Amino acid sequence: MGQKLHVLFVRGMLYYDGVSAVEYEWIKSLKDRVVYDYVLLDPDKSVPEKVQAVKDLGCQVYPLRYQSGSSLASHRNREKVLRAFLTEHHYDVVHIDTDLLSRYDVAKVARQCGVKKVVIHSHNAMRSVHGVQKLPGVARLERHLIAKYATDLAACSKEAANWLFNPQDQGRVRIIHNGIDKDRYVFSDSRRQDLRKQLGVGSNDLLLGNIGRLADQKNQLFLLDILAALLKKQPKAKLVLIGSGEKEKEIREKITSLNLTDQVILVLATDQIPDYLFAMDVFVMPSLYEGLPMTLLEAQTTGLPCVISQSISSEMDFPGMIHRQELTVPAEKWAETILGVKPVSDRQAEAAVLTKIGYDNRESAEQVYQMYIGG
């Protein structure tokens, strides 16, 4: 084996999100050929367990802090700290996993510092940034700068490619499906029963689940309305919410105001994601926008039926596993859809579908490596 490639991931933070999970799989799969490090531009929002997980795989994690301000000032300050870092540290590849148009500045600095391969990889189909729609002219300019400074463009889906890159650059985009480790998500009934007992969920209870950052994008506040509507027809329903984020306080307040304290289980951090998916009866994802959400892929692999918003791509649907609903309809309609979902007869069998539709982590990791070496 020749010398390993040295690759730098540039992220805002590490937390319980799909992108971090995908990167973790790449790091494991390519450990014999690639050494990965991280630069975190918003490190104080990271989940310590996720940072430790990548360190345990041999990654160095560098927190870079810069003074924010106006958009221009933030760009300048971010460029300054990155330039100092990349002047001191050498990397063969800088890999920028992002859904932010403004991350062109990271690619710009990397190229100026002599990095030969700079990847900008889109992982979301955002319509706006933090709820604010960018002016079309500004968005086009930032997409132009992304294409100018990045040597390689990649995306987890066509929708994610359309979001981050201009139409004239779509021909450069390499679609690399997010992959997961299939073996971790083969359904286990014994682990299902163990966790349901631990959570105080009865055998006749209907357990809904949602995994994702507690943020506007994931729309968990509306999910609480769905649960409240569902309880009028199914009093034994419960919801487990897994994730952390800026909406936590507001979500806790709404749980209290809707008198859902006994029906909602809030889990801010866990390394037992497969077990929680085994324990659930229906996965509910009313997201405002997504690229290819890893949690949805994981849920289907465990044989868990999913009720999701129409805004989510259909590229990774398992046959018969997905039930869609419009975000414009009231919570009661979502509740009706959930009650109409039938359980999967053989949850273990769904894991085999993952490889058939091209979302195995080893396959996606190999595509990433070929991109690094120019294949």
Can you offer a commentary on this structure?
There is one protein chain. With 375 residues, the protein is of the alpha/beta class. 39% of the residues lie in helices and 17% in strands. It has a seven-stranded parallel β-sheet, with helices on both faces. Strands 10-9-8-11-12-13 form a six-stranded parallel β-sheet, sandwiched between helices. Strand 5 (117-122), helix 5 (136-149) and strand 6 (152-155) form a beta-alpha-beta unit. It is globular, with a radius of gyration of 21 Å. The relative contact order is 0.12.
Key descriptive features of the protein:
375 residues; 6-stranded parallel β-sheet; 7-stranded parallel β-sheet; 39% helix; 17% strand; alpha/beta; single chain
Proportion of beta-strand residues: 15-25%
Task: Give me the count of strands.
Answer: 13
Tell me the number of helical segments per DSSP (H or I, 4 or more residues long): 14
Give the overall pLDDT as a whole number: 92
Biggest sheet: strands, sense, closure?
A: 7 strands, parallel
User: Terminal Cα separation, in Å?
Assistant: 18 Å
* Helix/strand structural class: alpha/beta
Helix content: 25-40%
Based on CA atoms alone, the radius of gyration comes out at 21 Å
Give the strand line-up of the largest sheet.
3-2-1-4-5-6-7
Q: What order do the SSEs take from the amino end to the carboxyl end, as H and E?
A: EHEHEHEHEHEHEHEHEHEHEHEEHHH
